[in-house]
Amino acid sequence: MAAAPTTGPPDFIGVGTQRSGTTWWFETLLAHPQIRAPRGGKELHYFDRYGGRELTDPGIAAYHELFPRGPGQIAGEWTPRYMHDFWTPPLLARAAPAAKLLVMFRDPVERFRSGALHQMSLTPKARIAGITSDAIERGRYAAQLRRLLAYHDESKLLILQYEKCVAEPADQYRRTLAFLGVDTEHRHDGFEQRRGTTQAANKQPLWDDMLDGLRAAYEPEVLELAAMAPDIDVSLWSNFAHLAADALPA
Asked: Which has the higher per-residue pLDDT, 201 or 96?
């Protein structure tokens, strides 16, 4: 008789970033027989509420109950806003100190475009200024990464780049599996199956003033991120390819 599933702290947590292909990548991971989703699906948003109240020991125990897994399996979730909320990184260190953390970054201008459209589709009556202000903050990757590393060792963190995962999915998949400590020989043939909501049909060109403003706002962040995370290939981000190391003067 098969052993009953057990629960406990998650083995891994995806913490960022919104509109960067995280649903697609999480579903790809779940195709591996050793990886389990939590009760409630990919995004638990468990720590969102603790921006307004204290996380207690019973709250941590309740979080652990959401992660069943069988022998030889690991379990985790992926809530993209965890890295965005300043209060969440220290709570993750309390609730799941041994968990490995996953981050997926995407060209921040393209992430902004997708994120703003997505939020407007969810809350059509919301003020545009509020939506765009939130959307631009979600693309300040270096600031978010600094907050994360203040509470978590760099060795526990895997930084992925959406554009690389699209261009070389099998290699990035094996890299992710190796980081998670599961069988890297598992073959996945469904990389082309994109899941989750897409704003591609609604994608509109950004007008010049907005595009210039976004690039100016994000350039310092992109440069700092490239210094902090050498695996990020800035040349793959069309809006910032001019910042790539081989494009800068010596």
From this structure: 96
